[in-house]
From TrEMBL:
<dbReference type="InterPro" id="IPR023476">
    <property type="entry name" value="Pep_tRNA_hydro_II_dom_sf"/>
</dbReference>
<protein>
    <recommendedName>
        <fullName>peptidyl-tRNA hydrolase</fullName>
        <ecNumber>3.1.1.29</ecNumber>
    </recommendedName>
</protein>
<feature type="region of interest" description="Disordered">
    <location>
        <begin position="1"/>
        <end position="23"/>
    </location>
</feature>
<dbReference type="Pfam" id="PF01981">
    <property type="entry name" value="PTH2"/>
</dbReference>
<dbReference type="GO" id="GO:0016787">
    <property type="term" value="F:hydrolase activity"/>
</dbReference>
<keyword id="KW-0378">Hydrolase</keyword>
<dbReference type="InterPro" id="IPR002833">
    <property type="entry name" value="PTH2"/>
</dbReference>
């Protein structure tokens, strides 16, 4: 056994190995995407809207200080950071909209985000919604991302359902938010949280993951292997050099 000192590994909310966060009560952030039979949203728009929805909740005054959601948000962030995306349409969507939360609209997508709930304590109108069936497509390939705005780069080697990818995009946005100082957060909030979600060029992916930008390493609860790098959060304020 080596006696050399080692740098402790931070107890990341996305790190797959067990840590102190696993001992805390577990919460989940519910997101519901509206998918009507006749007009489903485009996949990339749904991913971007979900990521912005997470930021809207984090930046909401009700999530800070003595706000009505602040306790739930703190409890959620003290444990593993879990997000679950469910789908709704028609009356299901209307019932979801009646619950406390915030609806965020994209070009074709609508996503409602709710304050965190206990892992086994979902409101019944959300618990009955389906997780499966969130497979979405882009009618046309998305255009190039704005290099001057935040970009959430998705792993080109992973095949994820739209719901899984929406949750991962939300994780990436959250990591970027945590890394920003108060001024950069305020500026992003004031601008309406602009961002893009794009699949990285395979030739660039390794460089992105070692660039010093925030990287989401999935805990492996669903769909993909534990420790998989899913998203790199490329915010201009976090770029090195």
């Amino acid at each position: 056994m080596s006696n050399e000192a080692t740098t402790p590994v931070p107890d990341s909310p996305f790190r797959p190995e067990p840590g102190d966060r696993d001992l805390a009560p577990q919460f989940v952030l519910p997101l519901v995407v509206r998918i009507e039979r006749t007009a489903p949203p485009a996949r990339t728009d749904a991913l971007e809207t979900a990521a912005r929805a997470v930021l809207v909740l984090l930046g909401d005054e009700r999530s800070a200080g003595d706000g009505e959601w602040a306790g739930a948000v703190r409890d959620w962030q003290d444990a593993r950071i879990r997000k679950v995306v469910r789908r709704a349409r028609g009356a299901e969507w209307r019932r979801a909209e009646a619950l406390p939360g915030v609806t965020v609209e994209g070009g074709s997508a609508e996503v409602r985000v709710f304050p965190p709930v206990p892992l086994d304590g979902w409101p019944k109108d959300l618990a009955r919604l389906q997780v499966s069936g969130t497979d979405l497509d882009d009618p046309e390939p998305p255009g190039a991302a704005d290099p001057g705005a935040p970009v959430l780069w998705m792993n080109p080697g992973l095949d994820m359902s739209a719901g899984k990818a929406m949750a991962q995009a939300g994780h990436g946005a959250q990591l970027a938010w945590w890394e920003l100082d108060a001024g950069a957060r305020a500026a992003w909030r004031a601008a309406g949280y602009p961002l893009s979600v794009r699949t990285a060029d395979p030739a660039r992916w390794e460089g992105l993951t070692t660039s010093g930008l925030p990287v989401v390493r999935d805990a492996g609860f669903t769909e993909i292997a534990p420790g998989s790098c899913t998203v790199v959060a490329d915010h201009p304020a976090l770029r090195r050099g």
